[in-house]
What does this fold into?
Amino acid sequence: MPLPARFNKGRVQKGAGTIGTEEQFTALLTRYEKLVYTLCYRMTGNPFDAQDLTQDTFLSAYQRLQDFDGEHERAWICRIAVNKCMDHQKSAARRIQPAEEEVFLTITDQKPDPETAWLQEESRQEVLKLCRQLPPPYNEIAEAHFYEERSIREIAEEKGRNLRTVQTQVYRAKGLLKKRLKGGHSRWKNGQDT
It folds into this structure.
């Protein structure tokens, strides 16, 4: 069946009556239904949503067909489809609310589990024990820095010592602790460090 005179090379013409509008819409639907569905499907990833959005697109196009100027009908119908998909995605994002259990599962506990807490405390006590076995002045500097976790600047201010001196003592205490951990600690019982 040839197209009515209102169609110019298959394009929708402006100013058609009600019967012409239905014919224009039928021609538009026939030409672009697959394109619009594919576009909606790619944007949503869901065939059911794509079908609904395709229907919404053509419903909106039908309602606005009298206002359409007849130029670039493919771009016009695709823009309607994209807008419908974007509106759908925005509204879907608002509707999705995690279940109460999901919310609680995403909250991380700031405290370690009992086993980890016990191991951390054991490690801290071992560090304290090792620091106290160092000869003076390294024992008090090591305890303040490695066990109490104070900065070198804080220790220097508290002890009234030069910052460089405390840095050197922390460095030497660290070396002695490494030695102690590797098993070279037999002389320490007598207070010797080498």
